[in-house]
Amino acid sequence: MDKPTACAPPGCPRSAQSRRRLASVSVDLDPIGCYTAIHGLAPPAEALRHVVLERALPRFLDLFARYKVRATFFVVGSDLEVAGNRALLAEAVAAGHELGNHSHTHPYDLARRERAAILQDVRACHEALRSLLGVVPRGFRSPGYDMSVCLLDVLQEIGYRYDSSLLPSWPYYVAKLGVLAAMALRGRTSRAVLTSPAALLCPPLPYRPDPQRPHRRGQATLVELPVATTPGMRLPAIGTTLVLSERLRLHVLEAMQARPFFNLEMHGMDLLGAQQDHLPADLVRRQPDLQVPLAAKWQALASTLERLSADHDIVPLREVADEVHRHGGIFRPRS
Ligand SMILES: [Zn+2]
Q: N- to C-terminal Cα distance for the chain?
């Protein structure tokens, strides 16, 4: 259940210096075309294709600089074909942030594909980051929170230290099921894929997966760092939840106090503004978080980072993976 392995000092370098809880902040840089595809809409206008990197990434860099947060950005490899995108991501690296692999083309059914197709896509992003930016990624996040035996095997073959794809949240799963069912009833097709319900049974805190059953504990060469969910209800403690409602945000942050590790996942879209960034009206209509003014979303995320940085060590996911590899779990601070 919810039992991380406690690492006792003095063996743990971080715990030797800190009794604070651990947190990571990561941002999936899904291009806007992912969202139009989810909602069955036409692809975005050419001028908007890279709006997430061009407009949202600089806002995240500004936000993180204010709170001295070193984050992890998960990059879609094909975005690196554009020189301007490479320059923006190079700025992130220069500011001390980690870049991770978020697949090359962001196919929502990646985990369901044949092993050779998975390898080709994951390796393409890996090579793009390495050859075009000089970054060797250490971790992976799958499109759509999915995982499979073949995908885990590919990640091990490439030599990744961690995966951070799973979101073991029943409320999120049920909400997604509802949206997909409603779209099907209206005859609209979504590119989104319902993940395996087995993912809902994975431990909520970092663990070493079983290569044959990635949602359970085992002896894989990498570690799984599940995206944060609250104890009990398993509400998704992600950017979308935090920006939608102030009451929900405060509830989630309070509930997460019981966790020794907060793997806060956000999306580039969390810092886009419908008006400022001229987003398509039909997309904004279908996506409630895009109806929240940019200033309010910024404030929600800034308040969250201010609160987290008061009593957490916030480090990139690769450093969390190092701690889990070294000690078999997250150090649980004494209260
Ligand atoms: Zn994504």
A: 21
Distance (Å) from CA 18 to ligand 1 centroid: 32
Above 80 in pLDDT, residue 78? yes
How many Å lie between the centroid of ligand 1 and the Cα of residue 322? 24
Overall size of the chain counted in residues: 335
Q: Which residues contact 232 (CB under 8 A, 6 or more apart)?
A: 255
**How many angstroms separate the CA atoms of 58 and 197, rounded?**
36
- CA nearest neighbour of 166 among 312, 25, 265: 265
What distance in Å separates the CA atoms of residue 288 and residue 6, rounded to the nearest whole number? Answer: 39
All structural domains of the chain = 13-66+80-91+164-327 (3.20.20)
Find where tokens 């075009």 sit: 132
* Position 254, amino acid: E
Q: Give pTM, 2 decimals.
A: 0.91
pLDDT at 192 over 70: no
Ligand 1 centre and the CA of 105: distance in Å? 10
User: In this structure, which residues have their CB less than 5 angstroms from ion ligand 1?
Assistant: 28, 30, 143
Q: Per-residue pLDDT averaged across 275-289, rounded?
A: 94
- What's the 11 CA to ligand 1 centre distance in angstroms? 36
> What's the DSSP call for residue 200?
G
Q: Are 144 and 93 in contact (CB under 8 A)?
A: no
